[in-house]
Q: What sequence folds into this?
């Protein structure tokens, strides 16, 4: 959890789930998560969602199922457990599959026919969602990680209820006089206000104990002087 938290704080929000998914898959691969099997064929399908376009979309499905989703199903049925899936989709209960497809949150709804058994096989259900409702796969992945990863809720919700000032305060507790804090900036972000807030909360006089230096041409000597003085007198230098 510590490693995940440290790394995720340096990632864009849209990349955090990718990192957490990779972490979860690696723990599965190493058999560290109890009761969860790692199947390389299924994992590859989840990551890449290959397609096979040599079978046209059946007429009964064409009005609601996009071509690309059907082509993904044609590759899905190459996985042993899913061999009859395309037949069931086309002939078994196309209307019930359509109803499932049109759900706002299909990832929490049972699939038609015997495919309701996938409620007990959550990773396999992810593959169906990847094929039929890829727009819901991020939510479904979060639900899966919450379910299988020990303390999964803490990983998925990590820092989500904290503001930037609270996160900085937490990071500060992990820092030392010789382990600095790095701010990875993006356009429009200025962490100076948060640093000043933390300094005041700790009882610092920000005019005397916090020195902020905008680095540019000719500022290197000034910055080094401040670092030397800060080292001796115990104040903060923010470059």
A:
């Amino acid at each position: 959890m510590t490693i995940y938290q440290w790394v995720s704080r340096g990632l864009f929000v849209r990349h955090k789930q990718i990192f957490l998914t990779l972490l979860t898959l690696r723990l599965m691969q190493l058999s560290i998560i109890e009761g969860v099997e790692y199947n390389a064929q299924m994992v590859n399908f989840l990551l890449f969602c290959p397609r096979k376009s040599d079978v046209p979309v059946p007429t009964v499905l064409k009005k609601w199922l996009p071509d690309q989703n059907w082509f993904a199903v044609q590759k899905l049925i190459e996985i042993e457990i899913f061999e009859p899936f395309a037949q069931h989709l086309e002939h078994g209960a196309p209307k019930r599959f359509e109803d499932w497809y049109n759900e706002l949150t299909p990832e929490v709804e049972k699939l038609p026919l015997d495919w309701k058994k996938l409620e007990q096989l959550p990773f396999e259900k992810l593959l169906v969602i990847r094929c039929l409702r890829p727009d819901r796969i991020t939510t479904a992945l979060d639900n899966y990680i919450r379910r299988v990863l020990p303390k999964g809720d803490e990983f998925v919700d990590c820092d989500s209820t904290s503001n930037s000032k609270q996160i900085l305060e937490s990071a500060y507790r992990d820092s030392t006089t010789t382990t600095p804090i790095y701010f990875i900036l993006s356009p429009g972000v200025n962490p100076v206000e948060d640093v000043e807030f933390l300094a005041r909360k700790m009882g610092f006089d920000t005019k005397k104990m916090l020195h902020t230096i905008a680095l540019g041409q000719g500022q290197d000597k000034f910055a080094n002087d401040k670092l030397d003085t800060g080292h001796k007198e115990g104040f903060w230098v923010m470059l």
Observations:
- The chain is about 55% helix and 5% strand.
